[in-house]
């Protein structure tokens, strides 16, 4: 089966597609297991990393959206076309929920 990469984020911690539904939204299967088996503690923070972690074939930057707790972190690699993360609680109106624009 062909992987629809532009529509699926990838977990950089586990190198897996984030195609599992959880209380947070889509996460990878190993992150999902961790979230349910040992829920992370502390406040959840979320942000786009300032530097792209990869580039698309046409050399556009692919940014990483991070969800961070005191003892756990999910790093999601987005496709270059992606400018919002559905797990961001304020993604509709908060500029911090968009990737930084380097250009
Ligand atoms: Zn993961």
Structural class: mainly beta
Number of strands: 9
Strand order of the largest sheet: 2-1-9-8-5
| Strand/helix succession | EEEEHEEEEE
Average residue pLDDT: 84
Coarse morphology: globular
Total count of domains: 1
Characterization of this structure:
The N and C termini lie far apart (36 Å). A five-stranded antiparallel beta sheet has the order 2-1-9-8-5, covered by helices on one side. The longest helix has 9 residues, at 29-37. A hairpin with a 4-residue loop joins strand 1 (10-11) and strand 2. By secondary structure, the protein is mainly beta. The chain has one domain. Residues 1-5 and 91-95 have low confidence and may be disordered. The chain is globular, with a radius of gyration of 13 Å. It is built from one helix and nine strands; from the N terminus they run E-E-E-E-H-E-E-E-E-E. The structure holds zinc ion (ZN). Zinc ion is lined by residues 11, 13-14, 16, 28, 30-31.
Keywords:
mainly beta, 1 helix, 27% strand, disordered N terminus
Please outline the helices and strands.
Blueprint: E1 10-11, E2 16-17, E3 20-22, E4 25-27, H1 29-37, E5 45-48, E6 54-55, E7 61-62, E8 64-68, E9 73-77
Antiparallel strand pairs: 1-2, 1-9, 3-4, 5-8, 6-7, 8-9
Bound molecules: zinc ion.
Zinc ion binds at residues 11, 13-14, 16, 28, 30-31.
């Amino acid at each position: 089966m062909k992987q629809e990469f532009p529509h699926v984020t990838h977990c950089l911690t586990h190198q897996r597609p984030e195609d599992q539904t959880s209380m947070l939204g889509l996460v990878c299967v190993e992150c999902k297991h961790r979230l349910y088996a040992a829920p992370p503690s502390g406040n959840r923070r979320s942000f786009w990393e300032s530097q792209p972690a990869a580039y698309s074939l046409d050399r556009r930057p692919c940014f990483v959206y991070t969800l961070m707790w005191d003892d756990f972190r999910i790093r999601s690699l987005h496709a270059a076309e992606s400018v919002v993360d559905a797990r961001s609680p304020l993604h509709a109106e908060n500029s911090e929920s968009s990737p930084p624009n380097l250009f």
